[in-house]
Amino acid sequence: MSRILARRRRLVRDLFLSLQLLAAHPLRTALSISGLLVGGAAVIVMVAVGEGAERKVIEKVRAMGTNLLVVSAAPAPRVLGRPRQAPTSTLLRVEDAAAIAEESVLAVAAAAAVIKPVVVRSGGLNTSTTLIGTSPDGLRIRNIGAASGRLFDDEDDRGQRRVALLGPTVARNLFQGVDPVGRAIRLGSVPFEVIGVTRPLGTDTGGVDRDDQVVVPLATAMRRVLNIPFVHAVFVQSRSSADLERLEREVRDILHRRLAARSGTADPFVIQNQAVLLRTERGAARAMNRLVAGVIVLALLVGGAGLVTVMLMSVRERTREIGLRRALGAKRRDIRLQFVLESGILAAAGGAAGVIAGMAAAAAAAAFGRWDLIVSWRVALLGFACSTLLGLALGTLPAARAARLEPSAALRAP
Amino acid sequence: MIEMDALTKSYRKGAAVTEVLKGVTLRIRQGEFVAVMGRSGSGKSTLLNILGLLDRPDGGLYRLDGTDFSTATDDALSAARNRKIGFVFQQFHLLERASALRNVTLPLLYADDEPDDGTERAKQALAAVGLSDRTHHLPNELSGGEQQRVAIARALINRPSLILADEPTGNLDERAGVEILEIFRRLAGEGRTIVLVTHDASIASRADRTVLLIDGRIADGPGAARAAGLLGDPVAHE
């Protein structure tokens, strides 16, 4: 065993000579590793993009709250030949939110909300947006904070005060850079005072701009703007995202009981589970990543083909050297090992260059583009390992050819 | 040392089979300096390849140091070449980017037991061929005769009992050729067996004995050589 190890050590020492040979053909050596360089760089850039996308999902999750169920009034059933009274079921009430908050074990908080398209005016400008009426609890559940000005409180809600929070998109469309806090707007025909601008929330999983909205106290929206006795949605927050499925069942039970007692109608609501939506989105991102991984494998294989070509060329050129080594006592496996190690060194050089190129490309993309890239040492190592291992694996091909040469014929090679 | 009986070897090229050795019988004693002579195509190279365990015979018997290698594995042949045989080639076959010293130590790389004093031994081998002052020179910094002496030092490093030389003076001028032959003479005097292949009668005449190979068969003695018209025809084509 130690004898074999000693032999291997000597062969590794002999690599020095091979390296000198590679250095003697700098252009060819560079060419052979360029493919793996590109492959390795591609690994790094694509994984960085993937991790960037993953982080975006996580941020989105954080922004909207993963621990969220949205109970919406179902679209109202249409009775044939009769005009529809309201687009959605009118059975959900403010008290249902309170009941969920009280009766549910898993819910931390629940808040009712009304949601309706509305035209906002200020001065000569107007814009179509979404009106959301909810309680201060609803603001907390939906992660709505003030970027400037203040949020409304229970006092504003109870007093049905006409105070409004503008989403950044609405503020921009309506006030075009001027601070809107303290300014007057009209929601429909009802005058409001802008008391704050909300922090940016980005888009939700459905791609809807969550910053294109006006948020007012629930009571104000119900009595003064919409004049309706029912609500469109109830936001329910759970302690953790792990509880969401159980919470969904619990909320369904509570509402079934309450709504059945009220009207006898079955299921006039739908429950949206944010965790499920996010899981779907993340799954889509992963599927994309797998596709990208396939492309990378292809790129690496093309790079590897270049390496194999150059190594085969090297074997052909050094046929007499191989014959000599065989005559001097080299076994087939010694020759094989020599060429595999040479390929490995080339591939490692290509991989290292690829890491540098990939990190540079990722940094450039992150600096100048809108891509969100994360380059971690884990990714760099992965890129390097991919190139090197591939080089070693593909190196066995020319190495096998070198080892197959018959010594007497190899010595006579031109 | 070397026993060959009715050795045959054919090469197949497509459907055509060429019989190169047609029953070679040959005995070479330890410490003998033997020249194998023959025209181009007479089977010299094939015989040398078989003697050097680079190729296997199709039929007949070949024993080196009493060992029959006809059923030996490829690895066993490699090991035997490393331990028992030193090769000297017409084209020297030195690694261009390695110093004289590194070239000489190359066979140690493939030895089962690497001697601790490998470098020391290589220096001694180079000294034995008169190249003590050339250890760190690259082959292209050496004359042809010096390069061939490096190759001889390389052949000696594992202290083989048999040295096989294939036209060792073929690429050298006369003076350098004579020097090389002197070295072989001396090695034979030290008890090493030398088998030298050549088509040049003046070189063959420096050996203890000349074995003549004609059309795949051995014709022994100078009479046979004269009969074959080989003597006095030193510029055969190889």
Q: Please give the alpha-carbon distance between the first and last residues of chain A.
A: 38 Å
What is the CA-CA span between the terminal residues of chain B?
28 Å
**Share of residues in strands of chain A:** 15-25%
Number of domains of chain A: 2
Largest interface: A-B, 30 and 30 residues
Spatial sequence of strands, sheet with the most strands of chain A: 2-3-8-5-7-6
Low-confidence stretches of chain A: none
Question: Any overview of this molecule?
Answer:
The complex is a heterodimer of chains A (414) and B (238). With 414 residues, chain A is of the alpha+beta class. Chain A has 2 domains: 8-60 and 282-411, no CATH class; 75-267, no CATH class. Chain A has helices at residues 2-24, 26-64, 94-103, 136-141, 154-158, 168-175, 218-226, 244-263, 274-317, 319-327, 332-368, 377-404, 407-411, and strands spanning 68-73, 107-122, 125-134, 146-149, 163-166, 184-187, 190-198, 213-217, 233-238, 269-273. The longest helix of chain A has 44 residues, at 274-317. The mean pLDDT of chain A is 83. Chain B has 238 residues and is of the alpha/beta class. Chain B has a single domain (31-56, 73-227), classed as P-loop containing nucleotide triphosphate hydrolases (Rossmann fold). In chain B, helix 3 packs across helix 4 (118-128) and helix 3 runs parallel beside helix 5 (144-156). The two termini of chain B are 28 Å apart.
